[in-house]
């Protein structure tokens, strides 16, 4: 306050001695300077706190926006990595599918022939068993027929004494002896 009173005292002396001439503009300037100085000295604390609050809110807003931008960029980076991994996975899947298709198409005739071979081998085994059974049956039938023929021949040659059969018996007996 001492400085302020000295300044006012000096101003009054200069005005009274007409060193400083007071007109409207200079009075308005003087009032404005005094108003600013009084407001600055009296309201300095509240202005500083107001400016600090505004600076803090601006700082927090900028920090929040920067953090959200960093989060978004990290998410975008992760999505880009996932996308590149997804593209790589699809490329590997395509390669695997083409290899699988090539393998299947190259082995499909083999698989079909194996299937038909399996079916035909089962059928052939069935036919073979049927043939063996038929051979046995035919052999048994032939044996029965031969037994009947031999029995009839024996009856005709020994009991009935038909000369034709005796002659055939002797011819077949000679052939058997010659073979031996």
TrEMBL record:
A biological process from GO: proton motive force-driven ATP synthesis
Coiled coil: none
Gene Ontology annotations for the cellular component aspect, listed alphabetically: mitochondrial membrane; proton-transporting ATP synthase complex
Key words of the record: CF(0), Hydrogen ion transport, Ion transport, Membrane, Mitochondrion, Transport
GO molecular function: proton transmembrane transporter activity
Location within or outside the cell: Mitochondrion membrane
Transmembrane spans: none
InterPro entries recorded: ATP_synth_Bsub_B/MI25
Superkingdom classification of source: Eukaryota
Pfam family, one: Mt_ATP-synt_B
UniProt protein name: ATP synthase F0 subunit b
Organism expressing this protein natively: Melanthalia intermedia
Gene: atp4
